[in-house]
Backbone:
């Protein structure tokens, strides 16, 4: 398979030590991708793909003026009897414009980010776990769990280098104004060298989650750049930016510029060894349509496209994604993000106040600890403390946090996420930023739970 060149404004490969052909698995390089007539001809009398020319046989039911019925009718009017566009160039063009990329060809679309992550491992990392000579991935826990799941499914070993954990610096809060978690670049380098020189293995991918899940902390782009330019590492750095649109505050004059300033997407077209994954599931509120995105150098996008299943993005998904990326929808999208950031500020402020609160008729702490992480995502990570602790006394209690989690879900119908088993997150609950009403409800129910447990 001949690999395309990078973007026209980047004539020389960079960094010089990175050779894509030596990182991609040989069988993937030799792959003859599936092709169909629709790749070349999309109009006319289409009798090439053995579709049902009569169309679907779905009968729509319900009042014609019902909003849900109208939406169903709109969906049924789509060309559902045809296979989807294999390329979706208009959608890619809108994404490229939104993220200030060199070209639409720098965009790959997958069935959710999880398909993208799985494909990247399949492309770059040779399966098999033995004593030596293995390809591996490197992750930085606490982090998104699907990196390890995809690795296990593909019979790939995982090297874990924990995030650096800083203790309180300002006003007793954990990690000060920038949160407590950061990439330990030197530890990552030591792990790569150890695998390579001592164990005879090769780290093919470094996964970085920014903002992190569950940490909610943005990764410093200087750390990403240092790994991209480090000559000892010949693989690919993948930056997972599912939550990138929530960085900054509701008061930012130009939120798009703030996002770009913090996003590794600015490295696309400058580095050949970086991939940035994003999604429509979070800030766009479209988790149900399953559209994941990879922003990458053109050669990597080409390899992803050659390896994926044909027609992976459905007609309804493409239709809704195109609508979501229209100028009118993007205006509402920005407004919604601003509202969520306001709601996040309220939730953070309220939880911070609760950390100074006491149990009823007592001088002992209610048990809400400090927020950890820097709140760059649409969730907050907060500690639950041991019952009987004094106000200001930091004693995280994972057992109590689990009980609070179960009580909230089973007794009062509020579902949050227990994260106390994650490194550096002892006693922590992850609370998604909800509507104003939902945020007030979770705070009220949390206080009630801590009074009982």
Residues:
């Amino acid at each position: 398979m001949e690999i395309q060149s990078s973007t026209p404004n980047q004539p020389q490969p960079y960094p010089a030590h990175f050779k894509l052909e030596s990182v991609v698995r040989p069988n993937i390089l030799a792959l003859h991708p599936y092709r169909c007539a629709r790749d070349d001809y999309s109009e006319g009398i289409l009798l090439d793909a053995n579709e049902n020319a009569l169309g679907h046989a779905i009968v729509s039911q319900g009042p014609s003026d019902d909003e849900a019925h109208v939406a169903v009718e709109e969906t049924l009017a789509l060309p559902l009897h045809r296979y989807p566009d294999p390329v979706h160039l208009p959608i890619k063009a809108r994404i490229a414009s939104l993220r200030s990329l060199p070209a639409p060809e720098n965009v790959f679309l997958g069935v959710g980010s999880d398909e993208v992550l799985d494909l990247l491992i399949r492309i770059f990392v040779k399966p098999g776990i033995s004593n030596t000579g293995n390809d591996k991935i490197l992750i930085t826990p606490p982090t998104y769990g699907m990196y390890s799941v995809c690795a296990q499914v593909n019979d790939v070993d995982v090297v874990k280098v924990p995030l650096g954990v800083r203790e309180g610096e300002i006003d007793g809060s954990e990690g000060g104004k920038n949160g407590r978690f950061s990439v330990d670049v030197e530890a990552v380098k030591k792990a790569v060298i150890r695998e390579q020189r001592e164990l005879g293995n090769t780290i093919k991918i470094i996964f970085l989650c920014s903002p992190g899940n569950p940490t909610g902390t943005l990764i410093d782009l200087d750390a990403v750049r240092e790994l991209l330019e480090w000559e000892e590492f010949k693989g690919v750095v993948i930056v997972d930016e599912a939550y990138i649109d929530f960085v900054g505050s509701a008061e930012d004059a130009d939120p798009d510029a703030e996002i770009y300033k913090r996003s590794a997407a600015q490295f696309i077209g400058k580095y050949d060894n970086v991939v940035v994954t994003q999604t429509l599931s979070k800030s766009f509120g479209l988790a149900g349509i399953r559209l994941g995105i990879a922003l990458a150098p053109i050669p990597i996008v080409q390899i992803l496209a050659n390896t994926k299943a044909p027609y992976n993005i459905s007609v309804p998904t493409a239709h809704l994604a195109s609508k979501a990326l229209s100028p009118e929808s993007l205006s509402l999208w920005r407004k919604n993000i601003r509202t969520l950031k306001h709601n996040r500020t309220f939730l953070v402020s309220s939880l911070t106040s609760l950390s100074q609160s006491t149990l009823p008729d007592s001088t002992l702490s209610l048990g809400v600890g400090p927020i950890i992480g820097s709140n760059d995502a649409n969730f907050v990570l907060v500690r639950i403390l041991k019952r009987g602790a004094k106000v200001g006394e930091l004693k995280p209690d994972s057992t109590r946090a689990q009980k609070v989690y179960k009580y909230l879900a089973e007794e009062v119908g509020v579902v949050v996420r227990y994260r106390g088993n994650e490194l550096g997150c002892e006693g922590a609950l992850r609370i998604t930023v909800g509507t104003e009403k939902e945020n007030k409800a979770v705070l009220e129910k949390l206080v009630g739970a801590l009074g009982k447990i």
Remarks:
- The domain at 20-36+83-325 is CATH 3.40.640.10 (Aspartate Aminotransferase; domain 2).
- The CA atoms of residues 166 and 180 lie 5 Å apart.
- The two ends are 62 Å apart (CA to CA).
